[in-house]
Amino acid sequence: MQFWIEALVSLLLLAGSLFTLLGAIGLYRLPDFYTRLHAPTKAATLGVGGVLIASLVYFSSRGDSISLHEVLITVFLFITAPVSAHLLAKAGMQQKLPLKNETSGEPWE
């Protein structure tokens, strides 16, 4: 049974690391504010969530019950990340930040 738990934790850590790496690359490579905002809010949230769920599985398997710290951190992360991204997007729209020509549409119209 221990092998399967370690395999699951390893898989979750690898997936979380991959999502975090993709979010960081997207933040660096994407051209304007709105597309840069999209990469970290989606991919990095999934990445940190994967690492936290891996920690939850690992420490819950070693103890008697579910680790409450990881559950609370995960819930807090999944609630606050979309709200902060929405507020950043609204602030960018109010300031009418410039878009690249490749970006379609005008967000403030």
From TrEMBL:
<keyword id="KW-1133">Transmembrane helix</keyword>
<feature type="transmembrane region" description="Helical">
    <location>
        <begin position="71"/>
        <end position="89"/>
    </location>
</feature>
<feature type="transmembrane region" description="Helical">
    <location>
        <begin position="39"/>
        <end position="59"/>
    </location>
</feature>
<keyword id="KW-0812">Transmembrane</keyword>
<dbReference type="InterPro" id="IPR005133">
    <property type="entry name" value="PhaG_MnhG_YufB"/>
</dbReference>
<dbReference type="Pfam" id="PF03334">
    <property type="entry name" value="PhaG_MnhG_YufB"/>
</dbReference>
<keyword id="KW-0472">Membrane</keyword>
<protein>
    <submittedName>
        <fullName>Na+/H+ antiporter subunit G</fullName>
    </submittedName>
</protein>
